[in-house]
Specification:
single chain; about 375 residues; alpha/beta; Rossmann fold; 2 domains; 7-stranded mixed sheet; two-stranded antiparallel ribbon; 12 helices; 11 strands; SRR1-like domain-containing protein; SRR1-like
């Protein structure tokens, strides 16, 4: 056998070299996540949301946090604030939506690719040092008075009553708000510097007045429901208690106190527990969320009403998913809802903090 023939024979006997070109953790993970999702795996459960809320509430005494992944496995994340007496960092939940699992590669190690929530650390020292805006409670009452005298308030009240009357077989026992924003935190230094240079400076509350207005709208929603059920039940003798809950992990303590004084129950300080309150007898109000509110709810329940924003595009120009993007599951959910515009009086649009950009989705039928 010639040398050439011998080399050819050896090559035939040797196994081929298989390159792992394009074979990455992300490729495998994203396909696996898509398969799990298609098979019905839920990205969020009430139990896991309650659990992470409880863990973060106890962060001073926990050395690590247990994070549930969508395949049911658990990973553990070290707690840098463990044992710290006066932590300046507060842990809150950072949600990852469907598209971060299957299309847009997330940051972090491959072990986190199956995670729909992780831990974000929020530095509180500046907020604690500067304190709340002086007199923010009085401004909130001014905004509330102006809102109560507006035509938009009456339009919203009438719309809520009409929708509930149409869905008369549906019972509502709570209104839950997500991410309406803080109403007391001071504006950043750069804003204060520029504001002082203006001929007619704005008041410090200008950056939180939209949030104040959204909380006023929430009060109107629950008032409309309470009034409707009171009138309906006068003849039946029944009594419906409708709770008003709100969750925003960046609420300051001063904001929480103010909201409680105005009829809100403040829940989920870490940003997760409030979702476990959502059920089929709920109204959800989320104005311009920075979390996947709709996707989370699609895994948990079918609220009677959903009031929120619907971005025209689910991805930005860099193909990053928007925080509250739609998903196959939310698209399916909306088939059971009728959508209408949030009512705002035309002449009041400039003063209504973009409420006219919201929509109201009403469930078509009772859900057992």
């Amino acid at each position: 056998m010639s040398l050439k023939e011998q080399n050819a024979a050896e090559r035939q006997q040797s196994p081929p070299v298989v390159l792992e070109y394009g074979y990455s953790h992300w490729t495998i993970s994203s396909q696996g996540a898509a398969d799990l999702y298609a098979a019905g795996a839920r990205l969020w459960t009430k139990d896991s949301l309650r659990d992470i809320e409880q863990q973060l509430t106890e962060f001073k005494i926990r050395s690590s946090f247990a994070i549930r992944r969508i395949d049911g496995t658990i990973i553990y994340i070290k707690n840098p604030m463990y044992g710290v007496t006066e932590p300046i960092w507060k842990p809150i939940v950072e949600f990852r939506n469907y598209w971060r699992l299957v299309k847009s590669q997330p940051d972090g190690p491959p072990e986190t690719y199956y995670c729909t929530y992780l831990i974000e650390w929020f530095n509180q020292i500046g907020t604690q040092f500067y304190g709340p805006i002086e007199g923010f409670e009085a401004v909130f009452q001014q905004i509330k008075k102006s809102w109560n005298n507006s035509a938009t308030r009456q339009l919203l009240q009438d719309r809520i009553r009409a929708l509930i009357h149409t869905s008369s077989d549906c019972q509502i026992i709570k209104v839950i708000c997500f991410g309406l924003g803080d109403i007391s935190v001071r504006p950043p230094s750069w804003w204060r510097i520029k504001n002082r240079e203006l001929e007619n400076p704005d008041r410090d509350t200008v950056m939180v007045e939209a949030s104040m207005l959204q909380h006023c709208a929430a009060l109107t929603i629950v008032d409309a429901l309470r009034q409707y059920y009171l009138e309906k039940e006068n003849s039946s003798g029944n009594t419906t208690i409708i709770r008003l809950l709100t969750q925003d992990p960046k609420y300051t303590e001063q904001t929480r106190e103010c909201l409680r004084a105005n009829g809100f129950e403040v829940v989920g300080p870490a940003g997760a527990g409030g979702f476990a309150e959502v059920d089929n007898e709920t109204v959800v109000f989320s104005a311009f969320a920075t979390a996947p509110i709709k996707q989370i709810i699609a895994d948990l329940a079918r609220p009677v009403l959903f009031i929120g924003s619907f971005p025209l595009e689910d991805f930005d120009i860099r193909m990053k998913p928007s925080p509250d993007a739609e998903s196959p599951r939310t698209r399916e959910m909306w088939k059971s809802y009728a959508k209408s515009d949030f009512p705002v009086a035309g002449e009041e649009i400039p003063s209504m903090a973009s409420l006219h950009k919201l929509s109201i989705c009403a469930r078509n039928a009772k859900v057992d």
